[in-house]
Amino acid sequence: MEPFRFHKAIEVSPGQTYDVLSWGRGASAVGAFMILHSDSAAAKYTTTTGDLDGTIADVYNADMDTDGNAEILIQARAMDTVKYAKIYAYEFNNNNANKLDFPKLTSSQRKGYRGDDNFYIKDGLLIREFPIYDRNDSLAKPTGAKRQIQYGLRNNDFTVKQLSKDSVDEKDDKPVAQTVKQAEPEKKTVTKKSTKKKRTEAKKKRRRRRV
Question: Where is the composition biased (Basic residues) (predicted)?
Fold first, then answer.
């Protein structure tokens, strides 16, 4: 119902629920989000808000640093020609929300990037996948390869590890076709019959002269 556009409830434990909503009127490309934390056991309710660029695609819950504090990750998707992703991350310690700075893609990670990100949680870590294009402009074509990046958390800072090889490295790692020169067959000396016949006749003539 307007002005709300998105809602997802995440229950991390009994009595601990996070309701994530987005809202706004007018242009759908801009708006705001809020995270409603309900601690029904302690009868405490807190609200965390922020400006939103794009629309919310999904929300994820994790404990990437295994400290027992829930992390809420909001994935937003831009509405322009390049559907790039933006992550709004918070770690909740009891009723306190700590905003985390999600790292941007490096220049090498952005090579061939045209959005269409896919995020998911695996073994408590955030995994990011997106298709690789042969260029970065609107005429780009997908290469068929994907880039995969893993995000963790340490001391409230994100750790980044690229799981897949870069598209350039993949090409370099292809086996190079080596040309193996085969040994040339040994040449056999073929004596023609006509040559043999001439030599035989010459020997006979020599014998007759001696006689």
Answer: 190-211
Q: List the one residue out of 116, 82, 88, 92 whose CA is nearest residue 17.
A: 92
Other CB atoms within 10 Å distance of the CB of residue 126 = 23
Q: Do 149 and 122 contact (CB within 8 A), yes or no? A: no
Is the pTM above the cut of 0.70?
yes
d(CA 109, CA 149) in angstroms, rounded, equals 9
Q: What is the mean pLDDT of residues 173-188?
A: 40
pLDDT in tens, 6-31: 999 999 999 999 999 999 988 777 89
Q: What are phi and psi of 97, to 5 degrees?
A: -105, 125
CA distance 140 to 165: 20
Task: Quickly state the pLDDT bin for 203 (edges 50, 70, 90).
Answer: low
Region for residue 123 given its phi and psi (left: phi exceeds 0; alpha: psi -120 to 50; beta: otherwise):
left
Q: How far apart are CA 56 and CA 34, in angstroms?
A: 11
Distances (CA, A) of 121 to 60, 71, 95, 126: 7, 12, 24, 5
